[in-house]
Amino acid sequence: MTTTRYFLGIDAGGSHCRARIADATGRLIGSGATGPANARVGMEQLRATLDAAIAQAAAEAGLTADDLRDTSAGMGIAGISRPGVREALAALDWPFASVAYVTDAVIANLGAHRGADGAILILGTGSIAQLRINGTDVAIGGYGFPISDEGSGAALGLSAVRHALRALDGRSQRTPLSLAVSDRFGHAIPQAIAWMDRATPRDYAALAPLVMDHAEAGDAIARSIVEDAAAHVERFIETVFERGAPSCVLMGGLAPRLRPWLRARTVAQLGEAQGDALDGALLLAGLPGDARAG
């Protein structure tokens, strides 16, 4: 039986950092939220962002410095697999009784299945499948845009820009989608090239709703782009079950819009999340699995 009085969960991703504190019964007593906390921002900025989220949660919970020394922390951090990041994190000095680090996908999977074996497929700006099989965590995909992230928002946006450029060249038909995309660049290829020189995966992913809207409206090219993405998602899911995961949950902002494009037999295999990433982070911190933060 644990003697730690408090548990801190951190979900540090590319768009935000969230913190949640629970007591030993699983009762939620404090939360905090700050900005981007991907390891790519650099260790100094990452630490500052984490500190701010933790301070908010601790203040709301009314925890003192002594209380923090009696707190176990679990942190899921995007980009932790980059060379040198785990070593840099291990060197950080925290006031907690213990700290455990994993990727943000691992805590999302832990939360979705309440720590049990299972898998998730995250479809957002990027894409990644995270599995837990016999207690071992394994990732599939998620190697980064543009070499990976199939079926993601960024991949949809990239395909849309390619289509728009081909249409401007006359190499493919102009459709409502190509016109909508090229309109953002004044229908001028030099402006599109200038945008691409500085575009991030998130910039490409911002075009994904446009692609989905036009696909749902019957645009032939948009439909082909979405159907290709759905095929990648289908293969992800097939691989998850081939690897031995007992269940799979779709997650991420793009998941609800892509789900209707999947085959009925695939959808029938999917489960529903039992918790979120912060629930998983609290489990990582050591909160008993039968406790429920809320």
Entry summary:
The protein contains 13 helices and nine strands. The strands form two sheets. Strands 3-2-1-4-5 form a five-stranded mixed beta sheet, with helices on both faces. The chain has a four-stranded mixed beta sheet with strand order 8-7-6-9, with helices on both faces. The protein has two domains: 6-113 and 274-285, ATPase, nucleotide binding domain (Nucleotidyltransferase, domain 5), CATH 3.30.420.40; 115-273, ATPase, nucleotide binding domain (Nucleotidyltransferase, domain 5, 2-Layer Sandwich), CATH 3.30.420.
Give the terminus-to-terminus CA distance. Answer: 21 Å
Q: Helical percent range?
A: 40-55%
Q: Low-confidence segments, ≥5 residues, pLDDT <50?
A: none
| CATH architecture assignment of the largest domain | 2-Layer Sandwich
Number of helical elements: 13
Strand and helix order = EEEHHEHEHEEEHHHHHHEHHH
Beta-strand content estimate: 15-25%
CATH superfamily of the largest domain: ATPase, nucleotide binding domain
Organism: Sphingomonas ginsenosidimutans
Protein name: ATPase
Domain ATPase BadF/BadG/BcrA/BcrD type: 8-284
InterPro entries: ATPase_BadF, ATPase_NBD, Euk-type_GlcNAc_Kinase
What do these coordinates show?
The structure is a single chain. This protein is of the alpha/beta class. It folds into 2 domains: 6-113 and 274-285, Nucleotidyltransferase, domain 5; 115-273, ATPase, nucleotide binding domain (Nucleotidyltransferase, domain 5). Helices cover 43% and strands 19% of the residues. It contains 13 helices and 9 strands. A 5-stranded mixed β-sheet has the order 3-2-1-4-5, with helices on both faces. β4 (71-77), α3 (85-90) and β5 form a beta-alpha-beta unit. α9 packs across α10. The longest helix is centred in the last third of the chain and has 23 residues, at 220-242. The chain is globular and about 70 Å long.
